Amino acid sequence: MEVKPIKCFLLDHGYSTLTSAPCCDTQLGSPRVTSFSELHSDRRYLEIKQSMDQGVWHKACEYCRVVEQRDDNIKSKRQLLLSKLNNTIEKDTLLELQLAPGYFCNIQCRTCTPYLSSSWIKEYRTMPDKLLPERNLFPIEHVQVSTAPVYDYAKDDWSNLKQVDFVGGEPIYNNEFYVQLKKLFNNTGGNCCVNFTTNGTIAIDFKKYPWISEFNDMHIVFSIDSVGPSAEFIRTGTNWNKVEQNIKFYQSLPKFEKNLSYHLTNSVLNIFETVNTINHLKFLGVPPSLLTIHVTEPHYLSYTVLTDNEKTKIAQLLQGTSAKYIISAMNDSVYTPKDRSKFLLFMEHTKNYHGLDWKDYLPALYNIMSKQNND
């Protein structure tokens, strides 16, 4: 029987500093490697490669496998990058890099953690004890201001890089972003596609950093989970009017006029907000990115908080809309009463800490999850 390898561009040519792995959806565990070159000699990486070359999905690549088996026309990251495969390129050549210059951030998205947002640390220390195990495995007193992931980029050759995706934290809020961007420019001469994901609350100061505009190809991905008041709840600390102003600012620059997109992180929180979000961003002239993400952690913000009865009602409402892609992922989840209990506790915490009541900001979700709708 002929073996059909499961080919993946990132497995050969990608590195994510978020996970010290070929991409941010791949988990190798501890100890973490510190560079792309070290990764390619690591036993765990070689096991993944061997498995995939033999046509067997490795458990480290489970996320893409699950996405590909769903019947919702959503492509996995692996599928989106298949066209980049080229057998003439050496497999240990670093071509795509996902780089987190630091986890300093200016807001506290509800689905985030203190290890991805420095602004979360103070709030995290006030969280109810029942919610803490969902956030990390370390004692709360060990949570400190987050810095950049361990990445010894002196070991890696950046001269062949074709694409670099800056993530965070909030890159624009982090000085290291500009240091690494300058190094990238010096190594590639600006002949590299640069994407940076931003929450949209602040904008690059091009007067201070004029050389940024010298990159041949730059794209901005707005990480937006909702619009208007619901956005200010889900991405706590956001001023939606300011986000719209910054979108229009970038649209006014020829460099970015056609190089803007948005990325949605789907969770139970925005399940009723997605259609309006997609329509509003279309009105603003911002197209969607190709990647689709559904929150699985923390569990209490995933679809596991929804009962089967609620999922049936939601599916009926989403069917035939631009948010119908959520249905498959939602139905794959298994209702977990413990997760629902923690969800309600987290909503209470958000109300007490920020003065934001979910029944005011997410009324459709509140109504369907209230007792009178669970007959």
Would you write up a description of this structure?
There is one protein chain. Strands 1-2-4-5-6-8 form a six-stranded parallel beta sheet. Strands 3-7 form a two-stranded antiparallel ribbon. The protein is globular. Helix 11 links the parallel strand 9 and strand 10 (about 295). It contains 16 helices and ten strands. It has helices spanning about 10-15, 35-40, 45-55, 60-70, 75-80, 120-125, 130-135, 175-190, 230-235, 240-250, 275-285, 310-320, 325-330, 335-355, 360, 365-370, and strands spanning about 15, 95-100, 110, 165, 195-200, 215-225, 235, 260-265, 265, 295. It folds into two domains: about 10-90, no CATH class; about 95-375, Alpha-Beta Barrel (TIM Barrel). The mean pLDDT is about 90. With about 375 residues, it is an alpha/beta fold.
Label the structural class: alpha/beta
Secondary-structure element order, N to C: HEHHHHEEHHEHEEHEHEEHEHHHHH
Biggest sheet architecture: 6 strands, parallel
Number of strands: 10
Radius of gyration, in Å, reads: 21 Å
Mean pLDDT: 91
Low-confidence parts: none
Straight-line distance between termini: 53 Å
* Arrangement of strands in the largest sheet: 1-2-4-5-6-8
Topology-level CATH name of the largest domain: TIM Barrel
Task: Tell the overall outline.
Answer: globular
**What is the CATH first-level class name of the largest domain?**
Alpha Beta
Helix content: 25-40%
Number of domains: 2
